[in-house]
Amino acid sequence: MNSEERKTCSILIIDNVSPDLHVLGPLLGREGYTLSFAMSGEQALEMAAAESYDLILMDFRLPGMDSCEVCRCLKNDPRTAGIPVIFLAAKSETNEVLAGFHQGAVDYIIKPFHIGELLARVRTYLELKKSRDALDSRNRELEKALLEVRTLRGILPICSSCKRIRKTSEEGADTWVSLSNYLSENTEADLTHTICPICAKKLYPQLF
Q1: What are the average pLDDT values for consecutive 10-residue runs of the chain, which has 208 residues?
Q2: Pair 14, 29: CB distance under 8 Å
Q3: pTM above 0.85, yes or no
Q4: Count of domains in the chain?
Q5: Does 135 lie in the same domain as 59?
Q6: Are 120 and 109 in contact (CB under 8 A)?
């Protein structure tokens, strides 16, 4: 991920511990990420619902609302469910942090921070989020295309003279319908009528 790509990445930091913020803010800011800060879980949920974030870094010990509960709320909200959540925890809290994985957290980083490790994990989850978003976008485009396109398959018996198409009902009875009617019934196309130059010369020779 280059510097231009990092500028488009938005990270929400949920932490009310000043030493942590004094490290995280300047460190991630120098990398070019767009940063937002929340001092509590309640504030974080409001911000996450109102804005679009690519990653959330959350202190495991929050005032008021429990961090695992915050994570659960984020994952239950369709607007924020796709945002990866990383806990920031002391080494003594690692066993408790595992409970957060059941609420949807993807990883945790031990405090005090190892700068190289922190940057590597942040970069990894941002790249994964970017790749997943691109894949989701392509899937939505494909689903839309499949809904819009209905393909005619097989052999269509068409009269060589009048150009009507033979249509066989479920009971086996054959009827002959116009090409325009057949296309309207079996495709999503909207038909409009005009006259080609060849027919125009036959029908209106005086104009030519």
Answers
A1: 80 93 94 96 96 96 92 95 95 84 93 94 95 90 70 74 83 86 77 79 77
A2: no
A3: no
A4: 2
A5: yes
A6: no
